[in-house]
């Protein structure tokens, strides 16, 4: 699907592009989402660009992600998507700026794109040129990353309270196995946010260098503000990652304590019932000469001995505070 954003009568218009159709005159932003081979080839001819393939977009070398060819600036960044689902992704998206037109090529659908598009349609000043569209998209991506971290921090605080909550008779303790799964999700999200912010910071640095003499001072100041926001988000993500590690260690420690408690109970039970078992084994032997078997009080005596042999170790363990 290809969506074109262009200026018409002073307003920003959104128009779906069909294969074989021409481009509008005042094109500002061409958003290319999961194009077919025919669509990609046709757009390359119309735009005069050689767009990277999906495999090329996945390359991690800086020279493959940030480069300039014949005045067209190619920038590939990693952007977080599906953050609210268990299948969160950090996928590569390529941005191309040429002749004041922004082209975005993507195979994922981050929420930041739809948020920025809706905002730009209401406020056309946010999408007057490819440069302003690029800045607006970066800001939307940064805002989205910050929102994800805020949600993770809130959920992590709630989980931390549950993990360290003192057990009461009214509430059951938290499922520690489920807590481990949640911590794994938090760690994955924090890692993907850090990966995304690192790539976006490189894009901002590249933009600052190539547009140094082409944009106004307020635009450069806008880029500097975004760079500061990126760094603060990266620091926050690192802090959350450290907290995840702490909670992970604490949860594993609590699991070990629970396992130790179970083993302790089983060990004590085995020790307590060992003497009665010994008594029962002795009186259960089938020898001819066993006077207790013919005594009227032999059976009650055996029962009493087994009870005493179980009770004495129990009180001994209690006195030693092993229970």
TrEMBL record:
It is a multi-pass membrane protein. The keyword Isomerase does not apply. One of its GO terms (molecular function) is cobalt ion transmembrane transporter activity. It catalyses: Mg(2+)(in) = Mg(2+)(out). Gene3D superfamilies: Magnesium transport protein CorA, transmembrane region. It is found in: Cell inner membrane; Membrane. Mediates influx of magnesium ions. This is Magnesium transport protein CorA.
